[in-house]
Amino acid sequence: MAQPRRNQVSLQETRYYHCISRCVRRSFLCGTDLYTGKSYEHRRLWVEKRLLFLAKTFAISVCAYAVMSNHTHVVLCVDPEQAEDWDTMTVLKRWYTLFSGTPLTQRYCQTDEREPMPKAERLKAELQAETYRQRLTDISWFMRALNEPIARMANREDGCTGRFWEGRFKSQALLDEQALLSCMAYVDLNPIRADIAKTPETSEHTSIRLRIKAALKGLQPFALKPFRSSEHDNEAALPCHLNDYLELVEHTGRALSMDKPGRIPEQAPALAQRLGISMANWLTLTQGFEYQFGCRVGTLPSLRRSQSHAGLIRIRGSGNARRLFAA
């Protein structure tokens, strides 16, 4: 049975979450329909552009994403400290790039009208801004701001009404770096597993392609959370270096696209060795990550801590955690 979102998202446990949205009936509403041959490929670009825009607006950064023909994967990292650093005007301006707000907060934003506002109205507007501040760190609001405009645009293009996405997106809490990095690789390798791309750099509408294109120019994609480097060697960065991650994804992609899928490379990349995951287990994780676990993913100790924190009797995926996150 599906759990309430408030039971699935706890920033005390982790700030990293894997979210999946699927089109209704899993139809090919964002790619080429296999039955009619009609192409909706341009809608994948809609989703990608909207996602990268939201990453610049919310206090939520994008670690990885893949926009597929009938579903979207995104790995998010919530940064509540970033939102706390914003002043009231910054919060309101960010909110107004997404939603209309209230007449009172709109008046507050107009500098020439803010001074004469009665104190009670000003305080009420600032209190409303605090609500917006919380929403700008909320994964559910992020996914709403991603999915609803795409649905409206698609329905307008099709001349119809009704749902475009399944009503509820799926989320998985990523409790440790093993879960985070294996999930990111799973997401980035989606087009290769689906046999619509042969290499990470040709995997359109994915974060791995965006990172590779930027890296070739010596740049970091502004809308994506950075990997650890001399410029980002702190807790705000992803827990490994970009070159190590690219090596691991490239290595995994080659293994997945071999003519003999059962063949496992003898030597695992350094990052997989550091994570303590055998290459056989790594390939299993990156082929079926979202189906191996429930709404929480991590090593067995991480799952047990989460179980205790949430007061749960059991956590789905404990057996797979014991089996897969091991050398």
TrEMBL record:
Query: Residue ranges of the Transposase IS200-like domain?
Result: 12-190
Q: Which GO terms describe its biological process?
A: DNA transposition
Give any GO molecular function from the UniProt entry: DNA binding
- Origin superkingdom: Bacteria
The UniProt entry's coiled-coil ranges are none
- Which InterPro entries does the record match to this protein? Transposase_17 (IPR002686), Transposase_17_sf (IPR036515)
- PANTHER family with a match to the protein in the record: TRANSPOSASE IS200-LIKE DOMAIN-CONTAINING PROTEIN (PTHR34322:SF2), TRANSPOSASE, Y1_TNP DOMAIN-CONTAINING (PTHR34322)
Name under which the protein is recorded: Transposase IS200-like domain-containing protein
